[in-house]
What does this fold into?
Amino acid sequence: MTFWSKVRVSWQAFKTRRKMNRQFGKREDPFSYETTPYESARLAAMDAALGPGPLGPVLEVGCAEGHFTARLTGRSSRVLAVDISAVALERARRRAPKADFAEADLMTWNPGPEAPFDAVVLGDVLYYLDRPGVGAEFEALFPRIASWLKPGGRLLLAHGFSSDKERAHRRSFRERFERAGLRLVSETVPDADRGGVRCLLSALEKI
It folds into this structure.
């Protein structure tokens, strides 16, 4: 990454971190994970999309306050959960004490020797990173994340959308991972919605 590339990525991370800390600073559970049918259906569908049975090491990116992290610790040998918001992570650590956590920006972070994983989960993350000025760095993210999976490992993408245009944009994330060598296993939209927002849920597998 060049000097100016690092500057652009760092500036984008600063803005995102500030936005998310402000959002989580308003109150606990600002996205209503615990109270809305949409979030309940989304988390249940995500759990099912990972397949049956126990899992080995799992990486969750965009863990927020740890609602899905807590589910993962019940079926995984080890969970590493990452978020850019320190405010959210403080609550996630209380909700899922068996998990390990890292405060980081996905555009520059790498799991190092923790990889490869049986599963990688990306929930409502990628559209925050897909911004003007960091396009090349964003495109480089897809093969990098794909490399963190074991052969046969599963990648789970869950991103909200409220229009056909947004749905196509979310689908483009899955298509980029397919070009990075992953195979689509399933793609669904859970029935529940929240104010017109639905969730595109894609599961891919490393060949």
Q: What stands out?
A: The chain has seven helices and seven strands. The two ends are 28 Å apart (CA to CA). Strands lie at 55-61, 76-83, 100-103, 117-123, 149-161, 182-188, 198-206. The helical segments are 3-26, 37-49, 67-73, 86-95, 126-129, 135-146, 164-179.
